Amino acid sequence: MQEFFKFIVEHADKLAEQTLTHIGLTFLSLCVALVIGIPLGILISFRPRLVGFTLGSVGVLQTIPSIALLGFMIPLLGIGPGPAIVALFLYALLPIVQNTYVGIREVSPALKEAARGMGLTRWQILFRLELPLALPVIFAGIRTATVINVGVATLAAYLAAGGLGEFIFGGIALNNTNMILAGTIPSALLAILFDAGLARLQNLRGLWRYRVMIVFFLLAPVLSSFYWYPAGGQPRLHAGFAHEFYGRADGYPALIRTYDLHLAARLIDQNLMYEAVHTDLVDIISGYSTDGRIKAFNLRTLADDKHAFPPYQAAFVVREASLKKYPELQPTLDLLAGQLSDSSMTELNYQVDYLHKSPEAVAREFLNQTGLLQKPYVGKRQGKLVVGAMIFTEQYILVEILRQLVENRTALAVVTKTGLGGTKICFDALNAGSIDLYPEYTGTGLLVILQPPLAVSDSLQVDTKAVYDYVSTEFRRQYQLSWQKPLGFNNTYALMMRESQAGQLGIRTNSELKRYLDQ
Amino acid sequence: MIAVRQLTKQYPTHLAVDDVSFEVGQRETLVLLGTSGSGKTTTLKMINRLIEPTSGTIQINGRDSRERKLHELRREIGYVIQETGLFPHYTIGENIALVPRLLEWDERRIQNRIRELLAMLRLPETYLNVYPNQLSGGQRQRVGLARALAAQPSILLMDEPLGALDPVTRSAIRREFKNLEELRQKTIVLVTHDIREAFELGDRVALMDGGRIQQIGTPKELLLQPVNDFVRNFFADQWLSLQLHVFSLQDLAPYLPNETAPPPEARLFPAQTQLADALNELSGPEAIAFKTGQHFVAVQSATIWPALGQLLQKQTV
Question: Which residues of chain B neighbour A128 with C-beta distances below 8 Å?
Fold first, then answer.
């Protein structure tokens, strides 16, 4: 509990910003839904023939699971606030259209006829009789739509549109309960607040009801404008960070510590982050230095000149027991040492992610180029090596390279277990003996598995070799696991910008970025 | 003045109104009487074009109603319906002011007119700012009438105006409406299924059945000279009490003693007073009198019944 409050206090600025963005998103989409939904409801009350079709189609939209609706938005409209608002708007539409129509239809026909009989025109009947009498029903719809939208708006963070969902998604990604709660509790409070407020409005009687409801219609656009409020002084460059980067001590906090670099950052799903910088939604992202999209989207990786980010050298981690059991394994693994530079790993990732080649084909091509393959082993397979991999492209490629190489040079049969959730799962599987080896990164081994006292990790931080030595010693001592020689590349965090913009602004390093922002 | 000629309304499933013609003169009240489904309400609604006729013409004050703009035509015709049709979200004042505001009267004129109507219908001014659901049925009905009269239309259409009220309130309001000077100045078409209401309020009554007018005439004509069995049977149940509405004090004169001087302590009534009203007055202890020619006739509760017996006996024969 105390930790939760500590989190809230530490992230008060970000939380306030997210809350305002959240309210803005909710009301912005609500306003669009009002502007389109109420006239649509009126239209179908005029033209009963359109009722079935209209309510049917709007109703179908409502049945699409919200996360799927947002998912559909990405190929259709891309990411950013626009698609998020469209999705939220589609969600808010049904209660508003339906209640407008029902509210108008439920006005007594005798009253409408009396009004006609007294010489009110069709429009006068609408504005003086039908809409005022339908208002409480319409308001019930607005209330439903608002509460739905407060909830669904948490998913907007998935489309890089901000809001309280940033902490929820981030918390899930980092398995950080306090972070999840910091997003969940305010959004639940918002929902309760709006629900109770609108309910009171709905229960007002007489003249006050109309006055206050009119005020609400004027207030809704004002609340919508909250969306832009956090942007405030319009930062010169917009940043979009992966949740993990934002939350991990070796991510954004390290950047602040080392460079004093403060960025108004939006939290984005790490798979959409590259898309976001590519489509100008943001200018800076927290990428991984070997991602294939760096090449695909022509991004510039800013050099970490003051070494804020710890090294993440990739290497296979193997059970010592397996090395003993299969003595031919060690020399084969040694062959891969230093074979992959940052750029060659990026290239391989690019071929799989963007040219849609299979990891198998990419691995074979790579092995052919490096000349590591011999005349293949053709005898009977003896012994079984189980190789694990986490659930991302680079790991698939690495285990494929390993599989082909081992099967080419030894009698071992290689079984791959890909798609393991993350470091913790791979490590536990390795420790338990379910797998014999998997590709790991030194920084992760240090911070996620070993979790040394702060003094130790601080002293190691910048030094690539020191980190490798430390994890390799400790893994052997504590777990009887052996770190193989580094593969060569360093898949660490790196700030990235569009090549064109970075070139124009003359930014190559994090320090230059800092200098540019301070100008 | 309303002139209806060969009015017909054909619905896909049935003929609602079949070749109906009638005229309503200035300051005349015509009652369209009939059971439900007789076509009376359809006929009424064709007058202000809430329903468009299949064929036939309607002239309002000498002009074909189809030449008029719909809402302008309707604003000139007062319209009162069952359950009043008051806007529930408007105060009494706003309800009454509805048509004058549509006609863009200036606000002072509207306020004066509202106060005039409230006084006329004996509604306290404190009601101006209350909502219809805070009033009783009878009060709402009076407000409904006030709203229809607000813009001083020369023509008033009333569709079962008292239909939603209990019998006691109903006859009280009916009597009240009947005695309103302003209503007497109007050309009125009133739809009802209540025979007594028709006889009390109508100068003439058109009895409708199956979309056709079976007979049109004064209540007396309908009661005493029915043109067919339908008309005769229609009134058969209430034949005796209806006569109290068609006969006046004048008709009793032959059966009562005449005097040359007005009887002392008796209130003087017009000779045209309907017997039903006269009987109502006689429920108290005092006597009433009326003047016929040079003579005065005193009527007392003791003498009226034998005289009435003689009159009615003559009618039956």
Answer: 87
